[in-house]
Write a structure and sequence with these properties.
The protein is mainly α. It has one domain. Helices cover 57% and strands 6% of the residues. The strands form two sheets. Strands 1-4 form a two-stranded antiparallel sheet. Strands 2-3 form a two-stranded antiparallel ribbon. Strand 2 and strand 3 form a beta hairpin. The two termini are 21 Å apart. It binds iron/sulfur cluster (2 copies). One iron/sulfur cluster binds next to loops.
Length: 157
């Protein structure tokens, strides 16, 4: 019993460190985006994936970060709308994924934002390697649905 508690504490510490580092990557990203200033009126249209013809991908680390910090509402995956969109606003801005943060519909910024995305994606990828987490990079809604069906199997590291 004692060993289990020690292991749980160690795992908790690892998770804490992993998420601190992920939050730091998001912080650096936000600074970079602020300088670029691609503009967004937060209309929420791009979070309705069907209507916007958009697929949001994310890594398991990012999805896990969300599921550990906020409650994931019940949702119907066939609606193809992010369940965190409330009244056309993101209800989990502090925890949203890299793709949520980088995507801007302004076509003039498409190329530069691709580079910004790639750079921060690699940083998150390296984080996965450092903490030896399982790594998947899949549509966000698929991963949320997987979490809803079995939360215990989804947790990492
Ligand atoms: S997490 Fe927020 S920003 Fe990302 S798709 Fe959902 S509502 Fe939109
Ligand atoms: S990126 Fe564009 S579509 Fe998405 S919330 Fe901002 S303005 Fe709306």
């Amino acid at each position: 019993m004692k060993i289990v508690l020690v292991n749980m504490t160690k795992q908790g510490l690892l998770k804490g460190n992993l998420y601190s580092e992920l939050a730091r990557i998001y912080e650096l990203l936000e600074k970079e985006l602020m300088l670029l200033n691609p503009g967004c009126n937060r209309c929420g249209a791009c979070c309705n994936f069907s209507a916007f013809d958009h697929v949001l991908y994310a890594s398991t680390i990012e999805v896990d970060f969300i599921t550990q910090n906020v409650e994931v509402p019940d949702f119907n995956i066939s609606d193809n709308i992010c369940p965190f969109l409330k009244d056309n606003q993101c209800s989990i801005r502090d925890f949203r994924t890299l793709g949520c943060r980088v995507y801007h519909c302004n076509p003039h910024y498409r190329e530069v934002l691709c580079d910004v995305y790639e750079k921060h994606y690699q940083m998150i990828r390296e984080l996965g390697g450092k903490y030896n987490t399982q790594w998947k990079y899949l549509p966000f809604l698929d991963q949320l649905a997987e979490f809803k069906s079995d939360p215990s199997a989804f947790c990492q590291p």
